[in-house]
Design brief:
single chain, mainly alpha, Serine Threonine Protein Phosphatase 5, Tetratricopeptide repeat, 2 domains, 0% strand
């Protein structure tokens, strides 16, 4: 019993249901699913990612609460599969619903939209939406996500050919990551 209570406390603390009251029946499955996605992403297990998206689709069909998360991860999977235009259309379908999302959910949508623009070589739009995400992360003092956004803006500026802008963004990201214990590249 103690392990279940600890898992529920952990899920309550780490749940990604922003702007809504924590609900164990929603958040424990999603937090576990989300961690599995992160591991599959890190080790490059695209088949595992695909299976998780299918599981989330099933959850979304039973509970509307999961629908926008399903579309975000479906778009990520489509990027992995090289279906960039399809990934863009999937994530763009959420733009009409942003008013019902919390700031951090909106930032997640903007980040994925930025990723699709980056893969479509639409660098100005990639930067625009990543800047919007970065501002929302900063507003909620999510420094790590803000640093990741600055890093992605640097990548978009580099691909665009704005090397000085890219360097400035990457240096800012590096400073933020050092706050979390990352070692400087040059000592």
């Amino acid at each position: 019993m103690g392990q279940i209570v600890n898992l529920e406390r952990w899920a309550a603390k780490n749940a990604t249901v922003f702007g809504e009251k924590y609900r164990a029946e929603w958040d424990i499955p999603f937090v576990i699913w989300n961690r599995k996605w992160a591991i599959y992403d890190l080790i490059g297990n695209r088949e595992g990612s695909r299976c998780l998206v299918e599981q989330l689709a099933e959850l979304a069909s039973k509970c509307d609460h999961y629908n926008h998360r399903y579309l975000i991860y479906k778009s990520k999977l489509e990027v992995y599969q090289g279906k960039f235009e399809q990934a863009h259309q999937t994530i763009e379908s959420l733009l009409a619903e942003l008013e019902s999302f919390s700031d951090l959910e909106t930032a997640e949508v903007f980040s994925q939209l930025s990723d699709t623009y980056l893969h479509l070589s639409r660098f100005d739009q990639a930067i625009e939406y990543r800047e919007k995400a970065a501002a929302l992360f900063l507003k909620h003092n999510d420094r790590l996500s803000h640093g990741q956004a600055r890093m992605q803006i640097g990548l978009a500026r580099w691909k665009k050919g704005d090397y000085h802008g890219a360097l400035a963004e990457l240096m800012e990201a590096e400073d933020i990551f050092q706050e979390f214990g990352a070692k400087p590249l040059i000592a």
